Amino acid sequence: MRLKFGRQKDMKDVGILKQALPYFRRYKNKTFVIKLGGGILKDKKSLDNIAQDISLLYQIGIKVIVVHGGGYQATELSKKLGIIPKIIEGRRITDEKTLEVVKMVLAGKINHEILTVLKKYGVKCVGLSGIDGNIIKAKRREPVKHINEKTGKMDNLDFGYVGDITGINNELIMTLLEHEYMPVVSSLGDDGQGNILNINADTVASNIAISIKAFKLIIMTDVNGILSNPEDSTSTLYYVSREDILKLIKEGMIRGGMLPKINESLEAVENGVKRVHIINGSTENALLIEIFTNRGVGTAILADGEQAEDYTT
Question: What is the assigned CATH class of domain 31-214?
Fold first, then answer.
């Protein structure tokens, strides 16, 4: 009886593989940019599960670039060091002390942890920051007008050592991909004047995806995609258009930390990336389900002209 049960399970697994086969063919030699949020990398089990999924994409011939943030880890380390984090509208204010924390977390701790686990599953990978090979060309963000929540008055908001991207040099990334290496890029850049800058990881991922004409940009975060009701985590919208998103923003359904992700997603689909997927990386096998099944588990944002009925392809 145990043998019979095992065969039934094996047959089911074979059926799943057959369903995924057309996707394997379609995506071979395509390029995906996968952005990993710090919140889903805070425990080893989650990172291990994600690394297994990414390694499968790599093994079947998909070219993958990983871009990672580390906001959660930077906040935790800042608190331990007695530095109070300041985040406004999803963007971190980066003074000199915070910059030191960000450098340690992004280019050190998280980047090396991702590399180590990917290597465990047979991936040839190289750790980079936007500074390496002059990948990210950036400038320090200018102060912006902002309403002070305490006083209600308009004042100048200085983000400190926060960078805005002015261009992407993809030569090093393309060279690594051509030699079957997976670049793992942390979201640090510099201004060419000797100053290191903290850059939003969603922005880095979006700009790299546009620069290399990626087939997909996949943002793995700790929410279940775009929600029709922010108070209901089960109200995931499985696909949306640009017009849908603009309406949700206007209605206040997309706000806070989601806004930078959504704005960068729109930028990507408006500039050549066919699909942007926002998925909950804390869900086991979320990446594979999103990519290799007809429904997926998160939200797919479609470029104009893409067919909603087949949004995961």
Answer: alpha beta
